[in-house]
Amino acid sequence: RLYQIPFGMPNCEDESEARTLYLIGDFSAPAEFFVTLGVFSFLYSMAALVLYLRFHSLYTENTKLPFTDFCVTVCFAFFWLVAAAAWGKGLSDVKAATRPSALIAAMAVCQADGVLCNAGTTPAMGLANISVVR
Q1: Residue ranges of the domains in the chain?
Q2: How confident is the model at residue 40 (pLDDT cuts 50, 70, 90)?
Q3: How many other β-carbons are positioned within 10 Å of the β-carbon of residue 109?
Q4: What is the pTM of this model?
Q5: Which of 21, 26, 46, 50 could be disulfide-bonded to 7 (CB atoms 3.0-4.6 Å)?
Q6: Are the CB atoms for 117 and 110 separated by under 8 Å?
């Protein structure tokens, strides 16, 4: 939810007054889908572990239970692939929206004649990239 993050920009004409810049974009849906699927996968894994260890005889005697378990696992694997792709796309959109050159281009104060704006350092996105790879 980048639109909720304010950035204070200095006003070159009047040093006492600062303007506020808000970023554009809401990329929270892919991240929420990814995390929700991870939580549901964890809960299903714990339930399946209890079924395998505590109710092993029920699992071996009933022929529909292993097939149902297989189908649910295949569905989770498919949705995990979809969630990872959605999170990867969401992360690339966040990177594009927060790129220093894009932020400088959005600041009206940097568009005036004779004003030189510098981005400084590039944000580190290594851990975010690793979260997509996992």
Answers
A1: 37-110
A2: very high
A3: 16
A4: 0.67
A5: 21
A6: yes
